[in-house]
Amino acid sequence: MNVFEIISNTNIDYKEKRHLLALAAENTLSYVNLSVKTEKHLKKGILCDIFEGHAPYRPRYILPDYEKYIKNGSEYLGIKPPKDMYEVVNALMVIYQYVPSITGYPVYVGQLDYILENFLDTVSEGEARNLIKMLLINIEKTLPDAFVHMNIGPKETRAGRIILEIERELKKAVPNISLKYSKEETPLDFAKFAAEVALEIGKPYFVNHEEIKNLLGENYGIASCYNTLKIGGGSYTLVRLNLKKASQEAKDYRDFINNVLPNVVDSLCEVINARAKFIVEEAKYFETSFLAKEGLIDINNFTSMAGIFGLYECIEVLTGLKLGHDEEALKYGEEILGKIKEVIDSNEGYGCFGTEGKIGFHAQSGIDSDIDVTAGVRIKIGNEPSIYNQIKTEGRLHKYFNTGVSDIYVFDKTARQNVDGVMKIIDAAMKSGIKVFALNTSDSELIRITGYLVKRSDIEKYNRGEVLREDTVKLGAESIKNNKTLDRRVREVE
Q1: Which of 92, 167, 207, 336 has the highest local Cβ count within 10 Å?
Q2: Bridge pairing between strands 220-223 and 61-63
């Protein structure tokens, strides 16, 4: 889209035009320096930088240490350490306007239940509830992007329960919410309440706290969709590999494993490192950001992400087998993922101090323009086996990823009357190795697209040509059309 097309587009509002114009200006520069081989992989679509721009000037995902901000305040923002609930809500609403990301909005708004819990007793119960509601409404109105993400859990807090109660009442797509879930730390009653809310509004989704804590330590956050990263850090970039297209370059499976795959993964790492290096050395982001100067982020907590998608089609192209239905397909899947991780780990990750000097491995959950290719390591929509076979299959695949992997399970509306049964499925999934379990119901007003939510009524408005505040509605509408999002298998709970 050229500059005039952006300016004259009647389907987007001022904010989105400004964002696209900034991207257009960035793209007047040459792409970060790459080898000829890697440039070819990008042009063929084997590699995709998910429209980050030619010359990145800020990390894709940033997870500020908001607890440190609340404790110390900010000299740059002129915010003193809050003393009561009014001041903490105000301080949060202020800083959110200054946290960048690839979307232009903060993709992480913090572990809000823990932050707010410390101030609940400074006001009456009614005031506390009203202030939390005001904060959630403010986030939805001023950060109208479904990639804006909040974390709660694993421990139950009064603030966490209030957040879920208000979100259930508001029924808004923003913010996205994940519950860090642990059988050891999360009371069953609170987990069941979270599942009950999710069956109604599609959030929160359940994160395998023990698994991710073992990978990244206790101080991690979930940002945007399913990105698991260190708090006080983030990810410079996310570049993804289309395994379906890569498989079409191979003569056969052995050629793919031994030659094609190592070649394209090396190129994947090259793009990632070039982009990360540009952010640090050319854009000098950490030298100019108040978040870094005040210790709310630290380069030692950052990494980059190598994403993959299309594993289902890759196996089908090379072997004729269907993941989730043929046991042998799973063996091929594990071999492919093992090889990718081996090649990634053989490359140094520029500035990837947050993941021990190696680029993080990520199962990318798809974008709106993907056609006939399956997100991450999921099973093709409409081809899902029984829920337990799906969990068993994907549980074996999730273990390879340290910076994000997920799947979405859609239940029949009758599941709302059997939350105990849903919790048994979630517990079985966590035990099998599933790192993120997103759940929804087939009749919910809020549809989970990839990792984000969109309201059905907003999709209808967009399709009628109405201009909407949330730019992610467009992405959701295109995903529904291109990716058959609404055709996910609906599950009944026994």
Answers
A1: 207
A2: unpaired
Cα distance between residue 424 and residue 427, in whole Å: 5
Structural tokens at position 449: 């697209």
385, 391, 393, 394: CA torsion to nearest 10: 120
Q: Which helix (H) or strand (E) holds 202?
A: none
Rounded distance between C-alpha atoms, residue 253 and residue 177, angstroms: 40
Contact 316, 248 (CB under 8 A): no
Q: Distance (Å, rounded) from C-alpha 9 to C-alpha 3? A: 10
- The answer, yes or no, to whether residue 15 has pLDDT greater than 80, is yes
Q: What SS3 class is residue 283?
A: coil
Question: What span, in angstroms and rounded, lies between the C-alpha atoms of 320 and 329?
Answer: 9
Burial 134-165 (b: 16+ CB within 10 A, else e): ebbeebbeebbbbbbbbbbbbebbebbbbbbe
pLDDT at 1: 72
How much is the pLDDT for 490? Answer: 98
Nearest to 164 by CA among 154, 173, 148, 152: 152
Q: For residue 66, give every residue at least 6 positions away whose Cβ sits within 8 Å of its Cβ, in sequence order, or none.
A: 92, 95, 109, 110, 111, 115, 296
Q: How far apart are CA 88 and CA 463, in angstroms?
A: 39
Q: What local confidence, expressed as pLDDT, does residue 471 receive? A: 76
Q: Decide: 147 and 224 in contact? Cβ < 8 Å.
A: yes
Rounded distance between C-alpha atoms, residue 488 and residue 153, angstroms? 28
SS3 78: coil
Q: What is the pLDDT of residue 2?
A: 87
Round to whole Å and give the CA distance between 382 and 325.
13
The CB-side HSE value for 108 (13 A sphere, CA atoms) comes to 29
Prediction pTM value: 0.97
Distance of CA 231 to the CA centre of its chain: 14
Distance separating alpha carbons of residues 226 and 210, to the nearest angstrom: 16
Q: pLDDT per residue over 82-130, tens digit each?
A: 999 999 999 999 999 999 999 999 999 999 999 999 999 999 999 999 9
Q: Are 52 and 305 in contact (CB under 8 A)?
A: no
Separation between Cα atoms, residue 238 and residue 60, nearest integer Å? 7
42 by Cβ neighbours in 10 Å (0-12 / 13-18 / 19+) ranks as middle
Instruction: Kindly compute the dihedral angle of the four CA atoms of residues 160, 161, 164, 170, in this order, to the nearest 10 degrees.
Output: -110
Q: What is the distance between the alpha carbons of residues 232 and 216, in angstroms, rounded to a whole number? A: 12
Q: How far apart are CA 413 and CA 361, in angstroms?
A: 35
Pairing of strands 220-223, 205-208: unpaired
Selection from 248, 159, 146, 176 nearest residue 472 by Cα: 146
Asked if 370 contacts 487 with a C-beta cutoff of 8 angstroms, the reply is no
